[in-house]
Design a protein that fits this description.
heterodimer; A: mainly alpha; B: alpha/beta; Rossmann fold; Alpha-Beta Plaits; 6-stranded mixed β-sheet; binds adenosine-5'-triphosphate; binds magnesium ion
Chain lengths: 253, 311
C-alpha cells in the first residue's frame, strides 16, 4: 500500500478547495438560506405540516441532499478530469500506485468536502428552524454513505468525460432532475399514485427518505430498504471504477 | 555490464490497428546514457510510455531491475522518473507544492532538504513559490525534470528534453544529465538530432517506423553516420571532374555548376584543405561554398538498406 501517495492526492485535492474556500462555503450557505426564505418561510407558511413535521423543517434533509449530491459529483469529477485535461495525469498513471489508492485519494477528498458542506448547511439551517435529529448516528451514516457514493459517481463521470461539455451536462441533465423528483421538497405520498410508482425507480428517493427518517422518523420507504439501496449504489459505482481502471478506460492506450 | 532494463519482443498495436512498435529487443545497461534517435512517429514515445506504465504493450515483456513492469509495477515504477515530451503541468500550483506532490505520489516520505537541493541544482530555487503558469517554457521543462527526480529514481527517461530549449539551457541540461550519470542514474533520452546523440550519449539506438534498426556504441555508430558533404559552386561550369581531383570522392552536379565532395567527419582529416588546393591548381574558380550533414532521413535509408542486404 502506497500510503504516501494517498496522502498527497488527498492533501492536494483539499488544498485546491482551500484556494477557492470562499466559493466553496459561500455558495451552499447562500443557496440554503435562499431556499429557506422562499420555501421555508414564504411558501412554506402556506403549506401544511407534512407527516406532522412543519414544512420548513421537513425540507432540511432534502436541501442537504441537494447540495451534497451536486457538490460530490462536481468536486470528484473535476478532481480527476482536470489532470486528464492538462495532461498531468501521466504522473499518476506512471506512479507506483494502484487504482484503489488513486480512488481513495480522489474520492476521499471529494467526499470530505461534501461532508464539510453538509455540516455547514446544517448549521445554516439551524438559524432558520428548530432542528431536531432523532437518530444522529444514522444521520451521520447516511451522510457519509451519500457523500462517498456520489463522489464515486462523480469520479466515474470525470474519468468518462473527454470534454468540458460532458462534464457539465451529466450533472445538469441527470443529477438535478433525479434530486428534484426524488422527494427533496415533498413527500412522495403527495404525488398521484402513478408517479409514486415511477419515483420508486429513482435512487435519490431512497437517500432522501432514509436521511429524513434519521431526522424525524418519517419516511417514504422503509429505512432498511433505503440503506440497502445506497449500499447497492455504492457497490455498482465501485465496480464501474474498478472496471475502468482494469481496462485503462480513457486513461491508457 | 548488467542490464537494468530488459525489453524483449515488445510490440504495440494501437486501437485502430496501427502498429507503432514491431518486436523490439533491447537491453539498457546500468548507468549508461542511451539516446534513442528517430524521426517523428518512429515509436520513441510509445516505447518509453510502455516502460513507464502509460501504454499497455500488445505483446512482449519488459523487466526493470529484474521485475516485470506489469506484475511488479510497484517495484519498477518506484525506480523510474519520466520527463514527458509535452509540457504537462498544472497552472495554479506552486513549483514547491508540485514537487512535494510528485515525491509522495511515488511513495517517498517528505524530504524538504533533498527537494531544496534539487531545485537549486536546476536553478529553480528562486521560483519555488511561483505559480507554474507564470514560468517560462524552459523553466517548466526544468520543473518537469525536478518532478521526475523528486523521488530519487535510478532510471530517468527524458523524452525530447531539448525541444523548445535555447542553447544555454541545452548546455545546462547536458550538465545535469552528466551529473546524474556520475551519481549512477541510468538515462534514456530521445532526440531527432544526430549531433545531440553524439554529444551526450554512450550508446545510440536508431528507431524508425517501429523498428529498432540498431543499437551501438556512439563512437562506432558515428563513424558510419557522420558523413558530410561539401558543395562547391563553380564560377564557370565544367564538363567533367578534372583528373587531378579523381582521387577524391567528388561528383559533378547541377549541370557542371557544382562539385560535391563527401567526407567523413570522424576521420583523421577531412581532406577539405587539399581538395581546395587541388581545385585551385586545376584552374577552377569557386563562387560559393556550402556544407550539409547527411540528413537523418538519408541515414535511415542507408540503415534500412544495410539491414536488408545483411538479412
Ligand atoms: N494513442 C495513439 N493512438 C493511435 N496511434 C498512436 C497513438 N499514439 C501514437 N500513435 C502512433 O504511433 C506512432 C508512434 O508514435 P510515437 O509518439 O511513439 O512517436 P515518436 O517517435 O515519439 O515521435 P515524435 O518524435 O514525433 O515524438 C505514430 O505513428 C503515432 O501516430
Ligand atoms: Mg515522441
Amino acid at each position: 500500500m502506497n500510503i504516501q501517495a494517498v496522502k498527497v492526492i488527498y492533501k492536494y485535492e483539499m488544498l485546491r478547495t482551500w484556494h477557492t474556500l470562499f466559493q466553496s462555503i459561500a455558495s451552499p450557505v447562500l443557496s440554503t438560506a435562499l431556499y429557506f426564505i422562499v420555501f421555508g418561510s414564504a411558501i412554506g407558511s402556506r403549506i401544511q405540516a407534512v407527516d406532522g413535521v412543519s414544512y420548513g423543517l421537513f425540507i432540511v434533509p432534502g436541501l442537504m441532499m441537494l447540495s451534497l449530491l451536486t457538490q460530490s459529483v462536481s468536486n470528484a469529477s473535476f478532481g480527476i478530469f482536470f489532470p486528464k485535461f492538462t495532461g498531468t495525469v501521466y504522473e499518476i498513471m506512471s506512479a507506483p500506485i494502484s487504482f484503489f489508492e488513486i480512488t481513495v485519494g480522489y474520492v476521499g477528498a471529494a467526499a470530505s468536502k461534501s461532508l464539510i458542506i453538509g455540516v455547514i448547511i446544517l448549521i445554516t439551517a439551524s438559524f432558520f428552524v428548530d432542528l431536531r435529529i432523532e437518530h444522529p448516528v444514522w444521520m451521520v451514516t447516511f451522510l457519509i454513505l451519500t457523500c462517498v457514493s456520489f463522489s464515486l459517481l462523480g469520479f466515474i463521470i470525470g474519468l468518462w468525460a473527454n470534454d468540458f461539455e460532458k462534464l457539465q451536462v451529466v450533472p445538469l441533465l441527470i443529477i438535478t432532475p433525479l434530486v428534484f423528483l426524488g422527494g427533496t421538497f415533498y413527500s412522495v405520498s403527495m404525488l398521484p399514485p402513478i408517479w409514486q410508482n415511477i419515483t420508486l425507480f429513482n435512487p435519490v428517493l431512497y437517500l432522501v427518505s432514509g436521511f429524513r427518517w434519521s431526522f424525524f422518523e418519517v419516511s417514504d420507504v422503509n429505512v432498511g430498504i433505503s440503506l440497502a439501496v445506497i449500499l447497492l449504489f455504492l457497490a455498482i459505482c465501485s465496480a464501474i471504477v474498478w472496471w475502468m481502471f482494469k481496462t485503462g478506460y480513457r486513461l491508457k492506450q | 555490464m548488467s542490464a537494468i532494463i530488459s525489453i524483449s519482443n515488445l510490440s504495440k498495436t494501437y486501437e485502430g490497428g496501427f502498429q507503432a512498435l514491431k518486436s523490439i529487443n533491447l537491453d539498457i545497461r546500468t548507468g549508461e546514457i542511451l539516446a534513442l534517435l528517430g524521426p517523428n512517429g518512429a515509436g520513441k514515445t510509445t516505447l518509453i510510455s510502455i516502460i513507464c506504465g502509460l501504454v499497455s504493450p500488445t505483446s512482449g515483456t519488459v523487466t526493470v531491475s529484474g521485475f516485470d513492469i506489469i506484475q511488479d509495477y510497484r517495484q519498477t515504477r518506484r525506480e523510474i522518473g519520466l520527463v514527458p515530451q509535452e509540457l504537462s503541468l498544472g497552472a495554479f500550483e506552486k513549483a514547491w507544492d508540485t514537487l512535494r506532490f510528485s515525491r509522495g505520489l511515488f511513495g517517498q516520505k517528505p524530504d524538504d532538504v533533498y527537494l531544496e537541493q534539487l531545485l537549486k541544482d536546476l536553478s529553480l530555487w528562486d521560483k519555488k513559490d511561483n505559480e507554474l503558469r507564470t514560468l517560462s517554457g524552459g523553466m517548466k521543462r526544468r520543473v518537469l525534470i525536478a518532478k521526475a527526480l523528486s523521488h530519487e529514481p535510478k532510471i530517468l527517461f527524458l523524452d525530447e528534453p531539448t525541444a523548445g530549449v535555447d542553447v544555454e539551457l541545452r548546455k545546462d541540461m547536458w550538465d545535469i544529465v552528466n551529473k546524474l550519470r556520475d551519481s549512477g542514474v541510468t538515462i534514456i533520452l530521445t532526440t531527432h538530432y544526430i549531433e545531440e546523440a553524439e554529444q551526450i550519449a554512450d550508446r545510440v539506438g536508431v528507431i524508425n517506423a517501429g523498428e529498432l534498426l540498431l543499437v551501438d556504441d556512439k563512437d562506432k555508430l558515428m563513424k558510419g553516420l557522420g558523413r558530410k558533404q561539401l558543395i562547391i559552386e563553380l564560377k564557370d561550369p565544367i564538363d567533367k571532374v578534372p583528373e587531378s581531383l579523381d582521387s577524391y570522392a567528388i561528383e559533378l552536379a547541377d549541370d557542371g555548376q557544382e562539385l560535391i565532395y563527401t567526407y567523413d567527419t570522424q576521420g583523421k582529416s577531412t581532406g577539405i584543405t587539399s581538395v581546395l588546393q587541388d581545385l585551385h591548381a586545376a584552374g577552377l574558380t569557386m563562387k560559393d561554398l556550402n556544407t550539409t550533414q547527411s540528413s537523418l532521413q538519408d541515414i535511415f535509408v542507408h540503415l534500412v538498406q544495410d539491414n536488408k542486404s545483411n538479412a
